[in-house]
Amino acid sequence: MCLAIPVQIEQIHDEFSAIANIGGLKKEINIALVDDLQVGDYVILHVGFALKKLDEEEALRTLALFAEMGIDVPAELASDAELPGTGEVVS
Amino acid sequence: MKYVDEFRDGELARLLAATIAAEVQPGRTYHLMEFCGGHTHAIFRYGLPDLLPANIRLIHGAGCPVCVLPIARLDMAMALAKHPDVILCTYGDMLRVPGSGRTSLLKIRAEGNDVRMVYSPADCIRIAQQNPDKQVVFFAIGFETTTPPTAVVIEQASRLQLPNLSVFCNHVLTPAAMHGILDTRSSGEAVRIDGFIGPAYVSTVIGSDPYEPFPAQYGTPVVIAGFEPLDVLQAVLMLVRQLNDGRCEVENEFTRAVTHSGNHKAKAVVEQVFELRDTFEWRGLGFMPNSALQIREQYRALDAEYRFAGLLQQHADQLSRLPQDNKACECPQVLRGLKNPRDCKLFDNPCTPDNPLGSCMVSSEGACAAYYQYGRVKDRIPAVTVAPTVTEA
Ligand code: SF4
């Protein structure tokens, strides 16, 4: 029940309710807990409530940080056959 | 899906893991506790222990809300559910948790009582409006993520003057439980924790500031991490770097959703509706002061503990005669990070997600359920086997 997911706001009815796109499904969600939402924003959805708006700039910054990490790695380590789990992090 | 797929990139995960492997100091072990059921789930779902070097030990903490609710509170909910006028509403996971006397809300429902699973607490308002001759009770559980929605519903029910809705409040506080775990550590029961992977969604609400006492008081660093596998790996790397550098601070990996002070609107409605409870029992951690919330006096008309005080008292008197928790269940030790689910004699046989004997086997965020679902076939020592990573559609 703790599992929460990022969803995109498609339509805003009033300060309480909006329609969100949840992996292709449209669903009414409660937005009473988040200020200044706009259509197109992404929010974290939990038990039917938007909990927090996701910050796109920060997301890109975090991703850039990951990429940097990769570049720092000596090539021989990255290809070390003894490293377990060869990248099968799949959704 | 945006904000999801890019944080699950397999190639980057491998590179991050390689960086971690390159930076850990040989001969040193890093005991890192994740304090969030969502992290426990992600760690197993993506096989992260297999990606990490053997000297990174991931310990699972008491971050699953279903797991930490003590049997006594579940028994109270079951007593409410048995009242012929009551419709008891709660989140799906709660229905299967075994209570005293080998029963559960699911079994009580099968006996003809009206127990309903809700997806959102807002559903309770509709159910109350549709059933004016019934008493609708919302059995509210959860950490700081689930509390604001409950607060909104209480506030709304109060404004609507709904006479037949009440809330049985069991909301608990994450930092209090982290203190509790570190305090049991100092009281002699040794679970070594070198750093915390701080919770993702709880922190979106409370912010990163409430974790400042952990470096200051206990010398334990905290890195708040998002839920996706790359987030968790990055947080592990950040903790390793802090420990290697001799730094000890609160860092935030989940900046796309977590700020210093959190979600003000959510905190305000929680503050308006709830106040601290003097003490509250946690499974595994016992009674801890100021670790949970209760409904403020102003909203007492909506507090099930007041509305059904007589019934709950009667139940408390009867309860002493029922058999208690399954004695062999190691949930309390699992929740404190003292034992691994596989150390429990009941794990896998007979305790399974279909037949849970303890709360940690119920929710997918529970450590036992996560081990069962994703880690069962693996070797006892993680990170030395190259088992195929279990994936899920
Ligand atoms: S395996 Fe089952 S009985 Fe054992 S600790 Fe986990 S939930 Fe309890």
Automatic annotation (TrEMBL), chain A:
One of the protein's GO biological processes: protein maturation
Alphabetical list of InterPro entries matching this protein: Hydgase_assmbl_chp_CS, Hydrogenase_HupF/HypC
GO molecular function, one term: iron ion binding
Family the entry assigns: Belongs to the HupF/HypC family.
PANTHER family cross-referenced by the UniProt entry: HYDROGENASE MATURATION FACTOR HYBG
The name this protein goes by in its record: HypC/HybG/HupF family hydrogenase formation chaperone
Organism expressing this protein natively: Parathalassolituus penaei
Classification lineage: Bacteria, Pseudomonadati, Pseudomonadota, Gammaproteobacteria, Oceanospirillales
TrEMBL record, chain B:
Keywords: Iron, Metal-binding
Single GO BP term: protein maturation
One Pfam entry name: HypD
Sections of the chain in a coiled coil: none
Single GO molecular function: 4 iron, 4 sulfur cluster binding
Presence of keyword Metal-binding: yes
Source domain of life: Bacteria
PANTHER family per UniProt: HYDROGENASE MATURATION FACTOR HYPD (PTHR30149:SF0), HYDROGENASE PROTEIN ASSEMBLY PROTEIN HYPD (PTHR30149)
Similarity annotation: Belongs to the HypD family.
The name this protein goes by in its record: Hydrogenase maturation factor
